[in-house]
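INPUT
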Amino acid sequence: MSLDLNIFFEASPDPGVTYAGMLLSGLAWTVALALLAWVLALIVGTAVGVARTLPFKWLVMLGNAYVEVFRNIPLLVQLFLWYFVLPEILPAAIGNWIKSFDAPWGPFFTALVGLGLFTSARIAEQVRAGINSLAKGQRNAGLAVGMTLGQTYRYVLLPMAARRIIPPLTSEFMTIFKNSSVALTIGVIELTAQAQQMNEFTFRTYEALGAATVIYIIVALTVNQLMALIERKSYIPGLIKQER
Amino acid sequence: MMNLDYSVLLRALPYLGEGLLFSLQITLVAMAGGIVFGTLLALARLSRYKKLATVAAGYVNLMRSIPLILAIFWIFFLIPEIVAWLIGADHPVQIGTTRTAFIAFTLFEAAYFCEVIRAGILAVPRGQEGAGQALGFTYAQNMRYVVLPQAFRAMIPVLLTQTIILFQDTSLLYVISATDFLGAASKVAQRDGRLVEFYTFAALVYFAICFTLSKVVKRYQARLNKNVAHA
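OUTPUT
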């Protein structure tokens, strides 16, 4: 095997785009999808995770059911449900409106929702565990000084839990970039899809898959550094260690 | 709303059953192979031999930083090349989708099992290994009789959870048109033009299996915790 790096600067079947350009466009879709889905997952995941720690039984059960549903169906099947099944079972007007989004936006928005909600269930699990790992006195202390339940969460529990779950969240954040590749099955031309296309056009498999592999490694390292930075910046001396 | 026809499901059940069987086979083989290979990787990562540890860590980190779909593309391309190289053929030798799928999942999941097992080994108190050495155990005997049995006992719930994820991951074989459970459902769904029925059914089956297994794991974990608390 001999690597031919010049292949990346040759023109792809896409007019005016080199193979390097193709891969970079794939990377852009991967990053856009992963980041937006991450935002959705954080919002929904935090809400569901908090709901599962509240003193309302029906809310806890609802939150538990949400997590079980999204965790026990493979991501790929969930994407198919959003993409192929949902528009058909909704009333025709809404279904047709959903289907009216052409590629690349239709598949992209579907993947965004699918990947975001899939990840939100995993984040909800971390958030719940993080809140439950805090000493019970924290919650009682907040309530005892006259804070409402909402204030206790806002000012006492969530700031502490958030710092504590940074390591597992780092791993979820890295996973969402990898999981975004599943979106290729519904037609999002992200990094893995572009690498596979380049492979089919050029038969330079080592170069095509190799480039994608290197890019994913760089993404993983970047995410890791970013989260380590956040962990350092948000660290409150003494507070967390003393709690354990 | 469209008309739903669930009788198409009934007719396709035998075919779907074969697909499910294939998914389960891959899960079991990759679990067994992944745990064996993952244990070796974990021992290598914890080894005193720096080079061995570096190579093992490189493999694990590489596998864990790329998407499974990309790994599947890699392995389906590389296996025929490697087989050709092994038997001295001058062009790639195909060994079939099924066998390649077994190998792909074993190699990929081993990296994830390795990290679980490594954590399990590190959780065994250091004194245990020292005690084994003091009794005159060799490294292999120490691992075989002292460290690994304790590590595995505590790890079983995590290993099973990882296996449930592995089972869900087998659906990704769809990308190489394999006839796993989802692949089978997708093929009949497209043939009959019944995507809604088949994908909904597939989701329900995956949910039923994974939900039940995760409940079993949870119950087992609770029992394990209780035993530890009593000990």
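end of record. Chain A has one domain: 26-243.
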